[in-house]
């Protein structure tokens, strides 16, 4: 089946609804199951195609294809097809990374991860972190004072909550938050927080919804253990379980954790393995496609949430 409109740019190519995928035979069922969850028409391993005009061709685990099959993809590129890895193509279409399709080669192109390899990018990000943290601490000072007062009045215990989290390069650090739960919240051991958690205080519900409880993490940003934008830091006790269920879960520790992140402004609150999988999709996408403009966009969306109470 041929598409009637030719594409002149990648943007136009991404509008096409048919994906021609070429992969090892043992991957066919998995790819079909995943792609069928989205609004794409899928054609897999059709090597009879000779007219490559106006076609988007994706490959998956191409290193495991035969020499003849790889030559077929090279010929498709020569003949005008848009050819790229399936995971990268879906990244552009879905705006998150389909982690069920991740494999090692996705991470083996260091230049594709500018946030990891570009020193200028890292310096710019750190500069934005410091300036933003100072400004936000000043702007949110009235909210912090009010929150601290109500926390102290409602329940006994410290105003600030300190907890070990895993940060960049898997190093643990203490994260700071306004206490939103009872002082004995973990008397029975560590457990996931839920949306309607009975351990959360009245003021805790409000500051969690508006993310005011995250404001003290700006101190972590100034200390250098966190960034303004990045994957949210998790506890090691949960990470050990999550990495068994989520492919390449620890790759999120290649960057500093963030006070806010793409997952936080793109996905509603959740505290289950399924929710962690979805957040990981956005975290990997953020690391791969990081830019200063994306950081600023995420920061502005977060400020809107804090200032106007539009928590999700």
Extract low-pLDDT stretches. 1-15
How much of the polypeptide forms β-strand, as a percent range?
5-15%
Coarse shape: elongated
Count of the separate structural domains: 2
Radius of gyration: 23 Å
Provide a count of the helices. 13
Average of pLDDT: 86
Task: Describe the largest sheet.
Answer: 4 strands, parallel
Query: SSE string, helix = H, strand = E?
Result: HEHEEHEHHHHEEHHEHEHHH
Share in helix = 40-55%
Q: Strand pairing plus helix content: what structural class?
A: alpha/beta
- What spatial order of strands do you see in the largest sheet? 2-1-3-4
Number of strands: 8
End-to-end separation in angstroms reads 42 Å
Q: Can you walk me through this structure?
A:
The structure is a single chain. The chain has helices spanning 10-13, 28-35, 67-78, 86-94, 114-117, 119-139, 141-154, 202-209, 217-223, 236-245, 262-266, 273-288, 292-308; strands at 18-22, 41-44, 56-59, 82-85, 160-166, 172-178, 227-229, 258-260. The chain folds into 2 domains: 10-94, Rossmann fold, CATH 3.40.50; 114-308, no CATH class. A hairpin with a 5-residue loop joins strand 5 (160-166) and strand 6. Residues 1-15 have low confidence and may be disordered. The protein has 13 helices and 8 strands. With 312 residues, it is an alpha/beta fold. The protein is elongated and about 75 Å long. The strands form 3 sheets. Strands 2-1-3-4 form a 4-stranded parallel beta sheet, sandwiched between helices. Strands 5-6 form a two-stranded antiparallel sheet. It is found in: Membrane. Keywords: Membrane, Transferase, Transmembrane, Transmembrane helix. Its main location: membrane. It comes from Pseudoalteromonas arctica.
